[in-house]
Structure formats: structure tokens, C-alpha cells
Specification:
Length: about 700
């Protein structure tokens, strides 16, 4: 067992060293293996400057923002840059008809004007450690979950003992390797500034996942800490964080072919899936989820166009739903154009042939066949789960308020003291005020009608209860009578909560509907999906082991799993299809040209026309042009939003925020000829801050490097 584990880990490390720069999301701990290749491509840094535990390095300036994006420190006073869309929920939460920061932008003139964001965190990685042998110590194989879980708990406890840090052990390659992540989690993150939507969301859904792009996708935050410079909950007494490391700003001219490195927290890739699973994704799962979001977006978009109030209420929700929706459309198209299923089948044919050539490897061939057969037969478990997620978590919003009364009902059923009941009621009312501030019952009514009808069609074959309901009659009853679809009814019910209230709840049409069908999803669909997923993951572990063992010199890299990674390439355009050539950058002139089309996604405020017509670029232009965005051949995915794109000296060139339409399939298959990440140029970011918005004091915090 020990010898096999050693050889497997060794082969993984050897495989890492053969990855080409165009593809792969590299673990920073192992970056030394790539140092010479990166330097050959133009990098002037050492591996120690990129990742170090014993001294400050670039990794200390890179933070996971809010759990789903990346941000970077750019000043000695804890100033953070991330994408506009990463900070969008915070921007929206601070916006109102009186203070429409979505439309007009916001810039704190002084630190006392910076706005707090309860629940928002920023996380620095203190160190990464390969703990594979420790996790598997005394385990009877890689699937001995009880021993593995106990070992992980012990490793985490030892790692953070006597510190203010947090830690977790993450599985890589479906449990073929394990890495310890020790973290410093900052809990007082304040909103400093944002451009208006006409810059931060310029192009809207029209341009999302598309090149050429002209979006100023950035927002500004600041980390605050206790007097000891350590993380602390929000307090008026907290001070700006003094970072171990922050990024300097690359102010020099760019050119095609320049070295680029993305350092961030990519979310999820699934490069190892078998052909039957990819077929399921392309032909069934993605099209169904796209259709669900087609329905909800049509309702939300119409509502947002009807009033400024609804526009503000639904801005962040619309963006969240639309982002994955458009990505999935491009993903399906790209996988079909690349004939992804056939690509996988060819890879599997070689894998099977190699496995059958050596008796010691025959088990790998059997695992591959088992995977494909099992997915083909049982993928409906995942389909039902995916549809349930779309319906119960991205569908009608009043479901959230039903979940919000769980603790109150529990306290009432337990005969809790008046003090406890008062506390629970206050919690629910506080939640309700936040919820109904961003809720419109007419919009939710439209979403309920559209999505319930679609979900009914998907579930009725497995659940006869769904076939008996009339959606139109049910929706009218719910939105006319339910306490959960009206703020006045709801708060009145909570304030007068008693035994009679429980009886009233038992007759509430919204409550009855949710508690009839959601438990079916939780009790039947979710467990079946988890069992299916566990079996798939078990075989995937062996399948991937086979790749490392049988093809030690091939390009293998661990799937993205929201851990810190590095990818490197160069600033370059692309020719994704025959007859089409994309240049490597866009300029301010393109913003004005798009505006002239009349598409509302390209609306601008008067200030932009004034500055563009006078070519008021300040020191931010290059050869008379103001660069807005550029593309690179870096392998990125969701979670890389906000990641710094660094030049050969580790200076900040721009903020990663998207991929091109032709690149969205790279979560499953990466094609170096067509896959490009999209970056907002840091000089455009500073131009917006300084020249456009007059927030020069923020630019003055940063260190600009011109050579």
C-alpha cells in the first residue's frame, strides 16, 4: 500500500511538470517545477516570489472574495480590487431610489464613508501542504472514509492550534491526493467604490461571455482589522489592514505576446468526465436548465424595464441567474462544435487499449466501462436533482421566507420562553425586511407560473402528485392569500404569533404547496442523487488513478475546486473559427461605437461622451488609445472572476472577469487555439477612478510601475 501510494504521488508530480502553459490550473506549492518554463516564456520572477511560506510572496496579496470570487490587495492600506459583478450584491444592497449606486456609481471620499457589509469575508492562504500520506495513514484504501475523516480532523486541529487561523483539507483528483489549506479569514470588508452600471456592466447580457468586450468590470473594497492587524468582526474601532504583500500596478505599454499569469481561486472544472456524462450534459441537463432560466429571465427582465424600483430590487438576482444561463448556452454550442463527445470517446479508446495491454491495469478498463454504463442508465438521478435546484433555489422567491420561519415554529412547538420567542420573532422580522425590500410579488407570480409548469412536466412522470395540480389556479390562490407573498401579511402574522397563527399557517396555500413538494425533493431526489454521485466518484477516483499510472508523461492537472491556483500564458488574440480573427485588445472608441447601435445594454452616462470626445485620457493611454480590455491564453473558470492578471515581474496588468463565448466549454475540454480569458486593463480601471470619477485619492494609494 505504501509503495503504491508513493509511486502514484510521484507520478502525479511528474505529470504536473509536463503540463503546457496553455492548459492547467497549477497548485502554487508545486510551482517550482514550472519555474524554468515560465522564465523561458518571459517571466522575471522566481518560484519563491510567487509562493513562499517563510517570506512574503505574491500569494499573500491574493484573496478569496466572499467564497466565490478572487480579489487582490493593491495598497499598504488594505485596498482590494475585484470585479464589479463580484461585488454586485453588496452594491445592490446599499442602493435605493435615493442612493442609486447601481446607476450612478459610488465613491467614498474618506475612509469614514466606506460602507460595511455583514457576512462578507476575504480569505488569505497562509500555506498549502501536501498531506496525502497523512490522510491515508492506516486507511484500508482510498475509500476508507471513517479513517480518512478522522485523520483530516486531526490534521486540521494540529494546523491551527494556538493560532487565529482556520484550515481545511481538500481532496484533489477525487481523493487521489489531499492538500491542507491554512487560511486567515478577514471579516470586516467595507465597500469603497464602484463605477456606474454603464461602465461596470457595459454590454449587459448582450456582451456577456463575448469578445470583443468593453466592460469596466471592477469594484473596490477595503479590509479592516483590529488594532493588532488581525481579523476581527466589524467595529467602528477597526483600522485598515496593513498587508504582508500587495501588488504594484503595471503601467507600461502592452503588446501581443507579453507574458501573463493569473493567480486566483478557480471554482469547478470537470475535465475527467466520461463520454456518456458529457453526452448527458450536452443533450439533456444543460438544455433543460437553460430553458428554466429562459423563463425566469423573461419575467425578471420585463419587470426591471417597467420601473426603477424593480430594476434595483432585481439587479443582482438577474445578474446571478443570467451569468450561468448564457455560459451554458455557449458551453453546449462549443462542445458540439468541438464534437466533445467524440473527443472523449477517442481518449477512452486509447485508455481502454492501454489498460488491456497489461494484466496489472485491467481493472482500469473495467472501471471506465462501468462508469459509462452506470451514467447512461442512472443519469436521471442527476437530472431530477438539477431541475429541483433550479426550481426550489433559483425559482419562486417566497420559498425563502418559508424557510426563514423554521426556527420560530420550532421554538413555538417546544413551548419556548417569552424571551426566546421574542428573539426568534425579531430575527424573522429582520430577515423579512431585508427580503421584501428586494421583492416584487407580481414578478414572483410570473416566475412561479412559468417555472412551476416546467418543473411539473419534468417531475410528473416520477411523482403523480404533480400531475394533479392546476398551476394557474394554485398561483392565484398563493399570491392573493399567502402570508409569504406580501410583507404586510407576513409581518402582521409574525407580530401576532400564537397557537392560532400555527392553525392559520396550516391553511396557507403557499406554505401547503411548499411543504407538500419540497420534502419530496429533499427526502427522495436528493438522497438518490447523492448515492448516484458517490458511486460515480468512487469509480472516477480509480479512473483518474489509471491516467496517472498508465500515462505518466501526459498532461494531467487536478480539477479546479475553489483552491488557490496559477495559470500562465500570454496576451494574445485568437481565431476561434474559420474566417474569424479576434484582436488582442479593445479601446474606448469601441464603447462609443457600441453605444451608437441603440441597444440599451450599451447605454452611457453623459460623462463618458464628454471625456471620449475630448480624448481626455490623462496618463492612462497607450499610443493615443485608451485600452479597455484584452485577452490572454490563460486557463480560467468561475471563481477566477476578479483574479489578478500579472506581468512578467508580478505587477498587476488587469482583472480577469470572463471568457470568450468559444471558451466556455473549457470546464470540460480545453482548446488552446480558441480558449481565451478576458481581462479589464488596470489602466482603464485607474482612468475610471481618477479621470472619470475623481477618486484620485484611491489611485494615490497605489504604487505605479512604468518599466
Amino acid at each position: 500500500m505504501k509503495f503504491r501510494l508513493f509511486t502514484l504521488v510521484l507520478s502525479i508530480h511528474m505529470a504536473f511538470s509536463s503540463i503546457y502553459a496553455d492548459e492547467g490550473m497549477l497548485i502554487p506549492l508545486l510551482i517550482k517545477a514550472f519555474e524554468s518554463d515560465m522564465q523561458a516564456r518571459g517571466m522575471k520572477l522566481t518560484a519563491e516570489q510567487i509562493y513562499s511560506v517563510n517570506s512574503a510572496s505574491l500569494k499573500d496579496a491574493i484573496l478569496q472574495f466572499g467564497g466565490g470570487c478572487t480579489a487582490e490587495l493593491v495598497s499598504s492600506q488594505g485596498l482590494l480590487l475585484t470585479n464589479h459583478h463580484c461585488g454586485y450584491s453588496q452594491i445592490q444592497s446599499h442602493s435605493s431610489l435615493e442612493h442609486d449606486y447601481l446607476k450612478n456609481g459610488f465613491w467614498a471620499k474618506e475612509k469614514k464613508d466606506e460602507l460595511s457589509n455583514p457576512g462578507l469575508t476575504a480569505t488569505r492562504i497562509v500555506r498549502i501542504e501536501d498531506v496525502t500520506s497523512l490522510v491515508l495513514q492506516n486507511a484500508q484504501g482510498k475509500q476508507d472514509q471513517s479513517v480518512i475523516a478522522a485523520n483530516i480532523a486531526s490534521i486540521v486541529k494540529k494546523a491551527i492550534e494556538g493560532t487565529h487561523y482556520e484550515a481545511e483539507v481538500k481532496a484533489f483528483d477525487y481523493g487521489n491526493a489531499y492538500y491542507l489549506m491554512v487560511k486567515e479569514v478577514f471579516k470586516d470588508i467595507r465597500f469603497v467604490g464602484t463605477p456606474p452600471n454603464s461602465i461596470g456592466k457595459f454590454g449587459g447580457d448582450t456582451d456577456n461571455w463575448v469578445w470583443p468586450r468593453h466592460t469596466g468590470d471592477f469594484s473596490v473594497f477595503r479590509i479592516y482589522v483590529g488594532k493588532d492587524n488581525k481579523p476581527a468582526p466589524y467595529s467602528a474601532e477597526n483600522i485598515p489592514y496593513t498587508p504582508i504583500q500587495y501588488l504594484n500596478i503595471s503601467f507600461k505599454d502592452r503588446k501581443e505576446g507579453d507574458f501573463t499569469m493569473v493567480y486566483g481561486f478557480p471554482g469547478v472544472t470537470e475535465q475527467h468526465v466520461v463520454s456518456e456524462y458529457l453526452k448527458f450534459i450536452v443533450e439533456k441537463e444543460r438544455p433543460a436548465r437553460i430553458s428554466m432560466r429562459d423563463e425566469s429571465l423573461s419575467v425578471i427582465d420585463a419587470g426591471m424595464k417597467s420601473s426603477d424600483q424593480i430594476r434595483i430590487q432585481y439587479a443582482a438576482k438577474q445578474a446571478s441567474i443570467a451569468n450561468a444561463w448564457k455560459k451554458w448556452i455557449g458551453q453546449v454550442e462549443g462542445l458540439k462544435n468541438l464534437d466533445g463527445v467524440a473527443v472523449k470517446q477517442r481518449e477512452e479508446a486509447l485508455y481502454r487499449k492501454t489498460a488491456e495491454s497489461n494484466p496489472a491495469w485491467n481493472t482500469y478498463a473495467r472501471v471506465l466501462d462501468s462508469l459509462n454504463q452506470y451514467v447512461k442508465k442512472h443519469s436521471d438521478y442527476e437530472f431530477r436533482y438539477a431541475m429541483g435546484v433550479e426550481y426550489f433555489f433559483y425559482g419562486p422567491e417566497f420559498f425563502k421566507m418559508i424557510k426563514a420561519v423554521t426556527d420560530l415554529l420550532s421554538a413555538g412547538n417546544q413551548g419556548a420562553s417569552p424571551e426566546r420567542m421574542a428573539l426568534e420573532k425579531n430575527k424573522v422580522i429582520s430577515t423579512a425586511r431585508g427580503f421584501f425590500k428586494n421583492y416584487n410579488s407580481a414578478v414572483d407570480y410570473g416566475i412561479f407560473n412559468a417555472l412551476t409548469a416546467r418543473y411539473q412536466r419534468a417531475e410528473a412522470p416520477q411523482n403523480s402528485n404533480w400531475s394533479t395540480i392546476s398551476v394557474s389556479e394554485l398561483s392565484k390562490d398563493i399570491y392573493d392569500k399567502s402570508i409569504f407573498t406580501d410583507s404586510t401579511r407576513f409581518i402582521q402574522w409574525v407580530n401576532s404569533y400564537s397557537n392560532k397563527s400555527i392553525k392559520k399557517l396550516a391553511k396557507d396555500p403557499g406554505y401547503l404547496f411548499y411543504n407538500t413538494f419540497y420534502p419530496i425533493f429533499v427526502q427522495n431526489v436528493v438522497p438518490a442523487f447523492r448515492q448516484y454521485q458517490a458511486q460515480v466518484n468512487s469509480w472516477m477516483q480509480q479512473y483518474i488513478e489509471g491516467k496517472y499510472v498508465m500515462f505518466p508523461n501526459e498532461k494531467h492537472w487536478p480539477d479546479a475546486n475553489s483552491t488557490l491556483r496559477i495559470t500562465y500564458g500570454q496576451l494574445e488574440g485568437s481565431s476561434p473559427v474559420d474566417g474569424m480573427a479576434y484582436t488582442e485588445h479593445t479601446t474606448l472608441d469601441g464603447i462609443i461605437a457600441k453605444n451608437s447601435t441603440g441597444n440599451p445594454d450599451f447605454e452611457l452616462l453623459p460623462r463618458m461622451f464628454e471625456l471620449a470626445s475630448n480624448k481626455t485620457y490623462g496618463p492612462y493611454a497607450q499610443e493615443g488609445e485608451l485600452w479597455v480590455c484584452f485577452t490572454g491564453s490563460n486557463h480560467t473558470t468561475g471563481g477566477n472572476s476578479g483574479s489578478p492578471v500579472l506581468d512578467e515581474k508580478g505587477n498587476l496588468m488587469g482583472l480577469n472577469f470572463d471568457r470568450s463565448w468559444e471558451s466556455t466549454m473549457s470546464d470540460y475540454l480545453f482548446d488552446p487555439n480558441r480558449c481565451r480569458n478576458i481581462v479589464v486593463d488596470i489602466r482603464y480601471v485607474l482612468w475610471v477612478m481618477d479621470i472619470y470619477a475623481g477618486a484620485t485619492h484611491l489611485v494615490n494609494e497605489m504604487t505605479l510601475i512604468k518599466d
